[in-house]
Design brief:
8 helices, 2 domains, 162 residues, mainly alpha
Length: 162
């Protein structure tokens, strides 16, 4: 009856006191299952009222104890929705990171290719070991420095000098 009274008086000025009394009474129940059933019925009955927020604060316990089909369904829906949102966010983040990574890799390859082409056009001998060293570098700052040096260097050692 107390649960029905709380639901019926959800918009009364005295609802906070009614809910406090109900919460205290429920905590005195010996059967935990009864506690959860009545607490959940109260929550559902209060709907989207201010009283529902008060009830939520009074019942701030681990809601995983609610075992009704409705609670289980709502938790399952919430988990599914969370997973779906996580997948979307993960895909979006992955696509963005993949694009950035792809652009960086493309820029690295471009600078290596242009540096080697410039050196070849200038007639600078590029031993296989130096070519391999340049082609395995992924640091754009180093590659840009090598390109700048390749413009005026007399040999490959000047280009690759630390």
């Amino acid at each position: 009856m107390a649960v029905l009274s709380a639901i019926t008086h959800a918009k009364d000025r005295s609802i906070d006191a009614i809910l406090k009394t109900l919460a205290d009474a429920l905590h005195e129940l010996e059967d935990e299952e009864d506690f959860h059933v009545f607490a959940e019925l109260t929550e559902l009955g209060l709907g989207a009222t201010r009283a529902a927020k008060t009830w939520s604060k009074l019942m701030s316990v681990d809601l995983s104890f609610y075992r009704s089909r409705t609670s289980q369904r709502l938790r399952a829906e919430g988990r599914a929705e969370g997973r779906a949102e996580g997948r979307v966010e993960g895909r979006t983040e992955g696509l963005f990171e993949g694009r950035v990574e792809g652009r960086v890799e493309g820029r690295v390859e471009e600078v290596i290719d242009k540096t080697l082409r410039l050196l070849e056009a200038r007639g600078i001998d590029i031993p296989d070991s130096a070519r391999e060293h340049m082609q395995t570098c992924t640091d754009l700052d180093v590659l840009d420095r090598w390109f700048d040096r390749a413009i005026s260097a007399a040999d490959i050692h000047e280009v690759l000098a630390e």
